[in-house]
Amino acid sequence: MSAPAIAHPPALAAWHRLVQSQDAAGLNTLVADDAVFHSPVVHTPQRGKPLVVAYLSAAFQVFFTDNFRYVREVVGASDAVLEFELEIDGTRINGVDMIRWNEAGLITDFKVMLRPLKAVNLIHQKMGEMLQRHAAQQQQ
After folding, report:
1. Cα gap 96→47, rounded to integer Å
2. I want to staple 10 with a disulfide (CB 3.0 to 4.6 A). Which of 17, 63, 105, 130 is the partner?
3. Is the pLDDT of residue 5 over 60?
4. CA distance 95 to 111
């Protein structure tokens, strides 16, 4: 007998819908103005909605492939840890998304942690490429 499905808090349910649809456009309505993003490859936190949305949008293009899947979740009232797995260019990647949201259901803090080192280096390269494209599009 399997355990009954537990309803996700609204912010987490919205996150899962965006991931499932691979639609980064919804990030603007899900991320708080004062949100902070903690990258596994950038030392300083990225602060403010525009930067958080830019990093998460790039992540949508890099991470959310056909073989991306969340394999475990630990969910609290205002935060969650989501373990994921995927493969990019023959490299198996394991990591966690640590997400916190406010009373309004908006993401206020998003931290990504990855392993192994080979995966961190690969993601550094891929995310760098996506962020450079995004910056170039913003200048046009």
Report:
1. 20
2. 105
3. no
4. 10
